[in-house]
Design brief:
By secondary structure, the chain is mainly alpha-helical. The protein has 16 helices and no strands. Helices cover 67% and strands 0% of the residues.
């Protein structure tokens, strides 16, 4: 697992933590939904009770259940009915997505266009990572989704809370530095380290936090390696889904970690893109 080890990175991390005492705190309703949906024995009424305290999330559930994707013969009008129809896994996924959206955008932030793009990319990556994990069977699909959803959260934390302008990162990249090195030069820390700090703040298990170090290949004995590979592959495919003309190459190391032959990539790419398109119809 990649860790924050250099003196410069430690200084950047300390600066980030000093700016926001409650770094990356998920809304209470999100934590509650994740807790309740963690057991298949939880009655629908418990989930309904957890959701109803947040009108925004309740509205999101109803909108999803009534979306054109499902083409129901009649409208779903209650949260309990939406819970029964959508199922625990979909609601859990939506809760995580809604919570992370707030962390990306921030409340009352007028300068969030860049972060909205990052959030959309993160959702697409999460959906693609879940599809890739399901096909390769090297990682748990739901955990792969979480890793994909969080892999860009560090960018938002840097942009919102540290001194410096992310536009400067793009300029530094043009001079020849890598994305992470450019972020470290501007902010004193890269987005992967910031993402790891957020995940550890949430108390996520090591296998998930390790999956956020998606920009470098894992050690051979790293149990989080398949998650890291799923995110790296999914992030590349998500960029291609938005702009097919770019068609960036999937990192070579992800193929060996996931046991994918080069001839299988077209099929996997197609399935991941279809998953992204379906999630977009679901308004997730």
């Amino acid at each position: 697992m990649t860790t924050v080890s250099t003196q410069e990175d430690m200084q950047g991390l300390r600066a980030l933590l000093s700016k926001i005492q409650d770094l990356a705190v998920l809304p209470h309703v999100v934590f509650k939904v994740l807790e309740v949906t963690g057991s298949s024995d939880s009655p629908a009424v418990e989930i309904e009770r957890a959701v109803l305290v947040d009108p925004g999330f309740s509205t999101k559930l109803l909108a999803c259940a009534n979306s054109a994707y499902y083409a129901l013969p009649r409208k779903v009008t209650s949260v309990r009915e939406a819970v029964m129809f959508l199922g625990f896994k979909t609601i859990r996924q939506m809760a995580m997505t809604v919570g992370v959206f707030d962390l990306f955008i921030g409340k009352g932030d007028k300068d969030s266009l860049r972060r909205r793009d990052w959030w959309r990319h993160s959702v697409d990556t999460a959906v693609a990572a879940k599809a890739i994990a399901a096909v390769t069977k090297r990682a748990g699909p739901d955990d792969a989704y979480t890793c994909g959803l969080l892999h860009y959260i560090g960018k938002s934390l840097l942009d919102r809370y540290l001194d410096g302008n992310y536009d400067a990162v793009d300029l530094v990249i043009q001079s020849g530095l890598s994305e992470l090195d450019a972020e470290r030069q501007v902010f004193g820390i890269g987005h992967t380290e910031a993402s790891l700090a957020a995940a550890m703040k949430w108390g996520f298990p090591k296998i998930l936090t390790g999956g956020l170090s998606y920009m470098s290949p894992p050690e051979a004995d790293d149990e989080s390696g398949p998650y890291r590979a799923c995110v790296a592959m999914a992030s590349t495919i998500a960029r291609q889904a938005v702009n097919p003309a770019i068609a960036p190459e999937v990192p070579e190391w992800t193929l060996s970690v996931l046991g994918v032959g080069s001839g299988e990539m077209p099929t996997i790419t197609k399935q991941a893109m279809e998953a992204i398109a379906s999630a977009s119809k679901l308004q997730i």
